[in-house]
Amino acid sequence: MKVLIALTYYRPHVSGLTIYVERLARALATRGHTLTVLTAQYDPALPRRERLHGVDVIRVPVAARISKGVLMPAIGFVAWRLVPQHDVFSIHLPQFDAPGFALRGRLLGKPVVVTYHSDLLLPPSLINLAAGAVIEFNNHAAALMARRLVAYTDDFARHSRFLSRYLDKVTVIPPPVEMPEPAPEAVAAFRAEHGLAGRRPVIGLAVRLAAEKGVEYLFEALPAILAQHPQALILHAGPREAIGEAEYRRKIEPLVERYRAHYRHVGTLTPEQMAVFFRCCDVHVLPSINSTETFGLVQIEAALCGTPTVASALPGVRMPTKMTGMGLTVPPKDPRALAEALLEVLARRDQYVRPRGPIAEQFAPATTAAHYEALFETLLRPKGAA
User: Fold this and answer.
1) 346 and 214, same structural domain?
2) Do the Cβ atoms of 82 and 58 come closer than 8 Å?
3) Does one domain contain both 278 and 372?
4) How confident is the model over 135-184, as pLDDT tens digits?
5) 386 in a domain, yes or no?
6) Backbone dihedral region of 160: left (phi > 0), alpha (psi from -120 to 50 degrees) or beta?
7) What angle do CA 248, 39, 246 make, to 5 degrees?
8) Is the pLDDT of residue 356 over 80?
9) Rounded Cα distance, 117 and 20, in Å
């Protein structure tokens, strides 16, 4: 079948949503389907059209930015051209253009499936307040016109202010996660490059520097950890120049400077490098603070590399450690509880490590793609067909 996917940011942008869609698109293409991704040309240097890993990527120029969102006046014309050429339309929220996409799919008789990745909570300002209200309205409009909504977990769907209103439309599909097994020589080289020899424990932080990630609470937990482990190091992988997060970066910079001797940033890594990164960590931490985090794919990535996680006990985010048995959850915004959980996992690490095989199978992109494929095929059947 021919599948059209729409989202605001696609590769080379780095975010959980982007990675999810890239893995889904590639897996569906591998299963023999024709995939087109419609997205923003958020960087003018990016080509308007290219083929990546068997997926056609069409980027629409950006006329203006509103906080983390973009305005693309031409996107409606491009969508009118593309929708008739495809069998199903997969829309990924949040995004400004969702209701226009859903309406086009509805008018042209194409099944519309909306995947809801997270709530959008913007920094407080009059512009962001207006933008947030528009996006929330757009999300609901798209949901009303969609045939089905996809959620990562039932836990998040039932606690989400948005999804809980459409539970009769919700299909739960586990997210796609893949992580290569790191080679021992690559791990040794990474340790040497970043001076990790003799540094124990290494606490992994795999996030972009954004307000919803709650990185400050990890720094506030650090003194209690250093009291027992004076050589502890926070090893941070991910972009520090996240879109729309300049103010948060300025806010957190004093904490980074205060604990400079116990913090190292290794930049944005490739999937192969991320596997090495997680293998070099004794524990991984995801201290997110709100519903913009709905699962935390990095928890599964860390688990596939044999590294347990301590994560915030938010709806959806608390599920990966339960599903894998690899780690603990703590109340969000609680540095003391975060420190205690990290110390517990470090003290009894072997009890929080599970075999890779079952976890890899459950979250394989091929598994996720098979679920989407079955959903699309169901929607494409004539009414009344078995």
Assistant:
1) yes
2) yes
3) no
4) 888 899 999 999 999 999 999 999 999 999 999 999 999 999 999 999 99
5) no
6) beta
7) 10
8) yes
9) 9
